[in-house]
Design a protein that fits this description.
The chain is globular. It has 378 residues and is of the alpha+beta class. β15 and β16 form a beta hairpin. It contains 7 helices and 18 strands. The strands form 4 sheets. It has a 5-stranded antiparallel beta sheet with strand order 1-2-9-4-7, with no helix packed on it. Strands 6-5-8-3-10 form a 5-stranded antiparallel beta sheet. About 11% of the residues have low confidence. The structure holds 2-acetamido-2-deoxy-beta-D-glucopyranose (3 copies). It is found in: Secreted, Extracellular space, Apoplast. It holds the Pfam family Cupin_1. One of its GO terms (molecular function) is manganese ion binding.
Length: 378
């Protein structure tokens, strides 16, 4: 009995120290700190209402029986029910969405940076899939055909889609493990950002000529999943530091090479929530647009000049005539990497033409051309 009590006490002590060992997860894309409170907006979660003043209305929303209008270019519509619609969801780590699909409608490839999704089909037949992050085995495409009553999981941060393969409408309900999961629609984010990502970056990332990039950028992107980042910011980091001894081979199509130092290389990082990478860039080398499903990144330039950008999907481009080197620290022991070009156009097996032509609003030959490129697994 005494020993049992001791074990329980030790376990609780460990559990509570673990619970306080790291910072809380973000609840929005970013929250830049300010000194002067009058410039501030409290967004990491929301202010809390006095519990004595809470009413049932704070936890209530009606109208999810009403279908969204699917007469748009992709033929789908997502009705979100998150903390913006139900204030009572604040700090509770969960939300919901209703997704309507016209016949052959597509919820195009996208990721939720802050949530895992569990989807259930109420009506119709959906072809669904997600692509694993970059790894030795490549970007694996995992797919399934779902019928009424079927349930499927899309792990946090991974690129996924649903396509209505049937002649009639389909409806699904998605639950998400965040009060504000966020949505990054790949086509919109990469080819429809405001301002546009430069041609130098996109031609190298997708290994195609400028006219193909211009053609993709010229498409009209449907904001099916609500808003995404409208104020892309440019970061610059200039810190002098001693160069490291080893340089990596950057003689590949994108002209860059990432050397990862995560839990796979240092087992002691397990549970510690941090890792590192060294990035080498040839002149005009590009670390192509990618995301880390499980981490924020803080990057320091050791040498050279980099043009960098993000809308959560981010990249670095060496604009100089000489090599560049950077060190990136990441807030996960295993941040994962999803290179957009590889994941969308180079997955194994390939994502179907039906999905990609609709998602990128281009003809089959453009998709086939993009898929035919050789993707560097950086
Ligand atoms: C989704 O449906 C709502 C309600 O019918 C409509 O107001 C909205 O414009 C639709 N969104 C898209 C992207 O079609
Ligand atoms: C759906 O949207 C289309 C295009 O915006 C519009 O013409 C149509 O009237 C809408 N349908 C309904 C039922 O609101
Ligand atoms: C990165 O550099 C290492 C060491 O030079 C090399 O073995 C590897 O093939 C390179 N990776 C790429 C993607 O070029």
């Amino acid at each position: 009995m005494g020993a049992q009590f001791l074990i329980v006490t030790v376990f609780l002590a460990l559990a509570s120290s673990l619970a306080f060992a790291s910072d809380p997860s973000p609840l929005q894309d970013f929250c830049v700190a300010v000194d002067d409170p009058k410039d501030a907006l409290f967004v990491n979660g929301k202010f809390c209402k006095n519990p004595m003043l809470a009413t049932a209305e704070d936890f209530f929303r009606k109208g999810l029986d009403i279908a969204g209008n699917t007469s748009n270019k992709v033929g789908s519509n997502v009705t979100q029910v998150n903390v913006a619609q139900i204030p009572g969801l604040n700090t509770l780590g969960v939300s919901l969405a209703r997704v309507d699909y016209a016949p052959y409608g597509l919820n195009p490839p996208h990721t939720h940076p802050r949530a895992t999704e569990i989807l259930t089909v109420l009506e119709g037949t959906l072809y669904v899939g997600f692509v694993t992050s970059n790894s030795d085995t490549g970007n694996r495409l995992i797919t399934k055909v779902l019928n009424k009553g079927d349930v499927f999981v899309f792990p946090i941060g991974l690129i996924h889609f649903q396509f209505n393969t049937g002649h009639s409408n389909a409806v699904a309900i998605a639950a998400l493990s965040s009060q504000n999961p966020g949505v990054i629609t790949i086509a919109n984010s990469v080819f429809g950002s405001n301002p546009p990502i430069s041609d130098d970056v996109l031609t190298k990332a997708f290994q195609v000529e400028k006219n193909v990039v211009d053609y993709l950028q010229a498409q009209f992107w449907v904001f099916v999943n609500g808003k995404f980042c409208k104020n892309p910011m440019l970061l610059t980091a200039e810190i002098s530091a001693e160069g490291t001894v080893y340089s990596r081979k950057t003689s590949n199509k994108v002209g860059s090479n990432v050397t990862q130092v995560n839990v796979a290389q240092i087992p002691g990082l397990n549970t510690l929530g941090v890792s590192l990478a060294r990035v080498d860039y040839a002149p005009y080398g590009l670390n192509p647009p990618h995301t880390h499903p499980r981490a924020t990144e803080i990057l320091t330039v050791l040498e050279g000049t980099l043009y960098v950008g993000f809308g959560l999907i981010h990249f670095q481009f060496n604009t100089g005539h000489s090599n560049a080197v950077a060190i990136a620290a990441l807030s996960s022991q295993n941040p994962g990497v999803i290179t957009i070009a590889n994941s969308v156009f180079g997955s194994n097996p390939p994502i179907s033409d039906d999905v990609l032509t609709k998602a990128f609003q281009v003809e089959k030959n453009v998709v086939d051309y993009l898929q035919a490129q050789f993707w560097v697994n950086n």
